[in-house]
Task: inverse folding
């Protein structure tokens, strides 16, 4: 192999193959070792039995999958879907008008507004969650300003707030891109033909920006659904999501095969959503 | 066309929602009292306390080591991969594979790597992989972002310069170093900045794959918060906010300069 690399390529075709090998092999080797092999391991663990002290026993079983339909776990999946869906809906309701306003600002203000929306997203994730603990906790800032003693932390609404705070920029960006592309003449035509502002929105703007809506919803739903840090820190472990369950199976209960099965279920849900997205993109 | 005024309400609400917690965080970092909740007066003492904290200092050093090393690996491998995919491959499977680490939920990536590292350690009888484990993991998902960013620059560029260089007798390596790479530079720099920022903030994968002794800053902060809330965390938060804000704005400026240079 070594002498071949040093030798001058004899023919263009051979040289091309050599170049392809030189460019592609380092990255692909890295991906095989650190991505495909680990994912293959996760996949294989789903059909093994758990060992007594966190290890695994290499013995074929399907009981990890039958455990998935246990009402306890289905309930957790259900509440994860509910929390992630509520977050996505709220993000869409706030994000759409926000993106709409930004897309119609003068160019200079447009850039500033976009950076302002994205900036918090680039700050430390843990710090952003911490900010909400500081604001909402029993002796926290909101209570001490209002002079009240509400328990605002450790509720489902707190988890939704934290997720919304973390992922709202991911909703605004694709929506902005979709609205920005829109030809203003289409809306003018609709208005000239006598359509009201709302009818124009419903019949022209919304259908044309639907791919952006679907992408934005996906960008918010996916990280919300698999999140374990925000439910843990803001939900106080009360509202458990799939992410918390997986984390616990790996780091506390030490049932790795079941944890692997849960994460396979997580990927399955996300692939389903991606298929919905590509279907929506093709229809548009 | 006239835009309805009521749309400005959610727009401003979003900005207040996004910035209010951050502003509170910074204000409270200058608190002279012991509480992170009630403001008693201006003081810089928590910044002093922060400077004395050894755990945070070690965390910061570890984070910088991990971010620097993973950025170097990700930028080199990602740039080569982007060129390889754009020029020498038509495989959509390989395209998808290259983007996969950036698209997969971090939790799934984290447990995959956890299983893999445990297996590596037990097979080779290694006690701990140290910071290498996290570095390799961060390089993995950063590589996906570098590849994606560099590729967007490649798809638009034409190959005639590279062909001219080859026709004039330059070898593949010379052509890449002298022709392809300079054209790609803005993309490579943007990708590297992205990789560095992502690694600085990364929590989930580090949480699963890090050992007990060497910890990165996000992990240190996480343990501090679990332990109790003090204005020291606010001081640290304020500094980190300043660093990321500067980095993002600098990155924004640099890509703009790069773009205008590439156009001229």
Result:
């Amino acid at each position: 192999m070594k002498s071949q690399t040093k030798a001058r390529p004899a023919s263009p075709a051979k040289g091309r193959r050599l170049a392809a090998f030189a460019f592609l092999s380092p990255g692909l080797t890295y991906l095989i070792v650190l991505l495909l092999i680990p994912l293959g391991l996760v996949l294989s663990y789903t059909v093994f039995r758990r060992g007594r002290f966190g290890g695994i026993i290499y013995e074929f079983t399907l009981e990890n999958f039958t455990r998935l339909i246990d009402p306890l776990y289905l309930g957790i999946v259900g509440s994860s879907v509910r929390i992630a869906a509520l977050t996505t809906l709220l993000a869409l309701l706030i994000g759409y008008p926000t993106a709409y306003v930004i897309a119609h600002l003068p160019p200079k203000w447009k850039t500033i507004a976009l950076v302002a929306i994205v900036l918090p997203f680039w700050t430390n994730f843990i710090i952003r969650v911490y900010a909400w603990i500081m604001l909402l906790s029993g002796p926290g800032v909101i209570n001490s300003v209002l002079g009240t003693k509400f328990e605002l932390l450790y509720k489902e609404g707190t988890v939704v707030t934290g997720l919304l705070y973390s992922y709202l920029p991911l909703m605004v960006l694709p929506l902005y891109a979709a609205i920005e592309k829109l030809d203003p003449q289409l809306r003018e035509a609709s208005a000239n033909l006598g359509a009201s502002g709302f009818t124009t929105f419903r019949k022209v703007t919304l259908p044309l920006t639907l791919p952006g809506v679907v992408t934005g919803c996906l960008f918010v739903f996916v990280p919300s659904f698999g999140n374990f840090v925000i439910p843990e820190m803001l939900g106080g472990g009360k509202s458990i999501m799939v992410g918390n369950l997986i984390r616990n199976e790996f780091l506390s209960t030490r049932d790795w095969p079941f944890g692997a099965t849960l994460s396979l279920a997580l990927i399955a849900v996300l692939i389903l959503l991606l298929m919905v997205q590509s279907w929506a993109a093709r229809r548009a | 066309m006239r835009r309805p005024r009521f749309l400005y309400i959610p727009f401003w609400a979003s900005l207040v929602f996004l910035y209010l917690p951050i502003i509170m965080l910074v204000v409270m970092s200058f608190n002279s009292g012991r509480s992170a909740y009630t403001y008693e007066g201006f003081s810089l003492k928590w910044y002093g306390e922060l400077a004395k904290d050894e755990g945070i200092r070690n965390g910061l050093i570890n984070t910088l080591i991990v971010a620097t090393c993973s950025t170097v690996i990700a930028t080199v491998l990602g740039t080569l991969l982007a060129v390889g995919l754009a020029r020498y491959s038509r495989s959509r499977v390989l395209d998808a594979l290259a983007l996969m680490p950036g698209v997969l939920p971090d939790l799934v990536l984290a447990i995959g790597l956890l299983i893999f590292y445990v297996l590596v350690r037990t097979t080779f009888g290694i006690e701990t992989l140290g910071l290498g484990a996290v570095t390799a993991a961060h390089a993995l998902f950063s590589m996906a972002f570098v590849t994606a960013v560099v590729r967007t620059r490649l798809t638009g560029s034409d190959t005639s310069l590279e062909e001219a260089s080859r026709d004039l007798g330059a070898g593949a390596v010379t052509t890449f170093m002298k022709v392809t790479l300079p054209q790609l530079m803005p993309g490579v720099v943007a990708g590297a900045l992205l990789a560095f920022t992502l690694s600085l903030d990364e929590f989930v994968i580090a949480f699963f794959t890090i050992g007990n002794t060497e910890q990165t800053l996000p992990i240190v902060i996480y343990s501090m918060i679990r332990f109790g809330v003090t204005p020291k965390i606010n001081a640290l938060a304020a500094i980190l906010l300043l660093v990321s804000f500067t980095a993002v704005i600098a990155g924004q400026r640099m890509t703009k300069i790069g773009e205008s240079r590439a156009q001229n």
Remarks:
- Chain B has eleven helices and no strands.
- The domain at 21-32+40-263 of chain B is CATH 1.10.3720.10 (MetI-like fold).
- The CA atoms of residues 45 and 257 of chain B lie 40 Å apart.
